[in-house]
């Protein structure tokens, strides 16, 4: 059984690679924490899946707990939603794949973890490039969905989705321990 490797995939680093210094496109200090959480979560998913094989990812470890693969697909769906919200080009993979994951009878049709991680990296690149360059008017626009935040905007929506990702990443960390794997690596810079 081969599990997922925790490979490092570079995302643009806006602290080192500054965009055009014009004030309307320069990185904004208030977006740096979101950028940092985005980067951390991007790498943490890879770390949470390191050593997890496809069969284990599809297995339901407890009747009241979703399998790892389902949580990864859920995270992907949220990340695609975030990318579209900030205007990054992001087309969600075929909806049928997600529908298959929502049905416990259809779990064998779930893509392998390596394929899901490739989608994760692909959808993570566009927001990493776009979010820090959002214009003030773009950030203030209403979010396309209601989120339980006090600032229901294109800036507040991703903030909620990043918290949402963090919650599910914690679940994945616990599930990997239930599989007998060591704690996931907690590193930044991925």
CATH topology: Four Helix Bundle (Hemerythrin (Met), subunit A)
The separation of the N and C termini measures 25 Å
| Count of structural domains | 1
Compute the gyration radius: what is it?
A: 17 Å
- Assembly annotation: single chain
Principal-axis shape equals: globular
Q: Tell me the strand percentage band.
A: under 5%
What CATH architecture label applies? Up-down Bundle
Assigned CATH superfamily: dinb family like domain
Instruction: Give the strand tally.
Output: 0
Return the CATH class. Answer: Mainly Alpha
Unreliable spans are 12-27
Instruction: Classify the secondary structure makeup into a structural class.
Output: mainly alpha
> So how many helices?
7
Average of pLDDT: 76
Give an account of the 3D structure:
With 190 residues, this protein is mostly helical. The two termini are 25 Å apart. It is built from seven helices and no strands. The chain has one domain: Up-down Bundle (Four Helix Bundle (Hemerythrin (Met), subunit A)), CATH 1.20.120. Helices cover 50% and strands 0% of the residues. It has helices at 32-49, 54-58, 68-85, 95-102, 113-130, 136-140, 156-178.
SSE order and pairing:
Blueprint lengths: L31 H18 L4 H5 L9 H18 L9 H8 L10 H18 L5 H5 L15 H23 L12
Any key phrases for this structure?
single chain; 190 residues; mainly alpha; Four Helix Bundle (Hemerythrin (Met), subunit A); 7 helices
């Amino acid at each position: 059984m081969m599990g997922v490797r925790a490979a490092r995939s570079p995302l643009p680093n806006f602290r080192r690679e500054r965009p055009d210094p014009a004030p309307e496109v320069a990185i904004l200090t208030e977006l740096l924490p979101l950028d940092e959480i985005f980067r951390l979560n991007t790498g943490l998913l890879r770390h949470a899946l390191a050593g997890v094989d496809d069969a284990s990812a599809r297995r339901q470890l407890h009747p009241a707990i979703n399998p790892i693969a389902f949580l990864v697909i859920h995270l992907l769906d949220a990340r695609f939603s975030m990318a579209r919200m900030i205007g990054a080009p992001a087309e969600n993979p075929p909806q049928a794949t997600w529908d298959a994951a929502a049905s416990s009878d259809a779990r064998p049709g779930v893509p392998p973890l390596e394929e899901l991680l490739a989608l994760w990296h692909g959808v993570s690149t566009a927001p990493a490039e776009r979010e820090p360059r959002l214009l003030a008017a773009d950030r203030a626009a209403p979010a396309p969905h209601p989120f339980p935040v006090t600032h229901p905007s294109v800036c507040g929506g991703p903030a909620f989705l990043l918290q949402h990702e963090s919650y599910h990443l914690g679940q994945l960390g616990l599930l990997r321990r239930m599989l007998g794997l060591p704690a996931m690596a907690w590193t930044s810079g991925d």
